[in-house]
Amino acid sequence: MSKLNDFHYAQTLMEMLYGINLPDDEFEEIALLGWNLIGNKRTRLYRYSVCVDSCN
After folding, report:
1. Beta carbons of 22 and 11 less than 8 angstroms apart
2. Cα 53 from Cα 56, distance rounded (Å)
3. Which of 45, 10, 44 is nearest to 30 (CA)?
4. Residue 16: its pLDDT value, please?
5. According to the model, what pLDDT value does residue 20 have?
6. If I label 24, which of 10, 35, 39, 55 is the partner at 20 to 30 A Cα–Cα?
7. How far is 49 from 28, CA to CA, in rounded Å?
8. Sign of dihedral through CA atoms 19, 22, 24, 29?
9. What is the pLDDT of residues 13-54, one digit of tens each?
10. Position 5 confidence tier, pLDDT thresholds 50, 70, 90
11. Angle of CA points 17, 43, 31, to nearest 5°
12. Rounded CA gap, 56 and 46, in Å?
């Protein structure tokens, strides 16, 4: 299995190689739009559940 890189690694390269600085939320929006255009991508789905007690 190949090693997976962190999604924000692209942001680090963008800043180092091209001097482009974007806020995290703007970078994520643009990157996710591009990510959806890529075929053969891996995704993971997580489920989280929690029980909440009522406050007295």
Report:
1. yes
2. 9
3. 10
4. 95
5. 92
6. 39
7. 25
8. negative
9. 999 999 999 998 899 888 888 878 876 667 778 888 888 877
10. low
11. 30
12. 32
pLDDT classification of 1: cutoffs 50, 70, 90:
very low
Place of tokens 């929006």: 29
Hey, what are 52's tokens? 């909440």
Q: How many CB atoms lie within 10 A of CB 53?
A: 5
CA atoms of 32 and 34, how far apart (whole Å): 5
Among left, alpha and beta (phi > 0; psi -120 to 50; other), residue 36 is alpha
Structure tokens at 43: 């995704």
- CA dist 30 and 23 (Å) reads 11
